[in-house]
Amino acid sequence: MKLSLILLGAALWATPPAQVPSKFSGHKGKDIVYQGLTEDFVPFNYQEDGDVKGSATEVAKEAFKRAKLKVSFAVWPWARAYKAALEKPKHFVYSTSRTQEREKLFKWVGPIVKDEVHLACLEGADFTPHPDFTTFKSHTVAGQYGDAPIEFLQKHGFKITIYREEDERMQAFKKGRIPLDIVTTGSQKSYETKWNVKYKKLAYLYSTDYWLAFHPSTPDAVIEALNSALESMRKDGTLKNITAKY
C-alpha cells in the first residue's frame, strides 16, 4: 500500500502542469507579420538610411517586441497608407488621430505620442494671429487627404482644398495659391527644413494623441496584447524616455 502511494505520488509529480492556452491560439497571431504603414512626418515617423525611424515608430517597435508579435514598417504617401489600412488585413497605419468619424473604421492601439495642431500661414503673409481660429474661416486652407484636421475644420465651416500628395499641397501653399496650411508643434521644424518655408502660427486648433490604427479584422487578442505592452512601457518609463529623445 505504501509503495503504491509512493508510485502514485511520483507519477503525479512527473505529470507536467496543464498548459495555459495562448491568447493567440486559433488565429496563429505569432506567425503573422503585421505591416505598419506611415508617412514622412518627422519626428514621429520617417525614413532614414533605409530604415523607418521616429518616436512613434520606436514606440511601436518596442510594443510589438514585448507582445512577441512580428512587424515590418514602410513609409508610403499618406493617402495610400491610410487606404491600405482600411482595406487590407494585417495592416495598420500610424501616427493618426482617433476621431469619432474613424472610430469604427479601425481597431486602435495607443495613444503613443501627443501633439498640438495649429492653423498657419507663411511668415510675412498679411495675417494677424488670433485666439479664435474661426476668425480665418473666410480663407481657404490646404489639406492633406486623410488628415484628421480636415474633418475638424470642415465641421466648423472652413473651405479646404484637399491634395492627395504632400508635394502638391506644399507647392500650392508656398506659391500663395492657398493662403493657409495646417501645422503641428511636433512637425513644424522638420516641415520648414524640408520645404524651405517659414510658418507663422495663427490659431491653436486642438491637442491630439496619435495612435496605431489597425484593419478591423485584426484579432482582439492582438490589440489587447499591444495595448498591454504599451501600458507596461508607460509604467516602467520606456514610453517617456523614447519620446524625450525626439
From TrEMBL:
User: Sorted alphabetically, which Pfam families does this protein's record hold?
Assistant: SBP_bac_3
Q: Which domain of life is it from?
A: Bacteria
| Ranges of residues in domain Solute-binding protein family 3/N-terminal | 33-245
- What SMART domains does the record point to? PBPb (SM00062)
InterPro entries for this protein: Solute-binding_3/MltF_N
Annotated membrane-spanning segments are none
For this entry, the protein name equals Amino acid ABC transporter substrate-binding protein
According to its UniProt entry, this protein's organism is: Bdellovibrio bacteriovorus
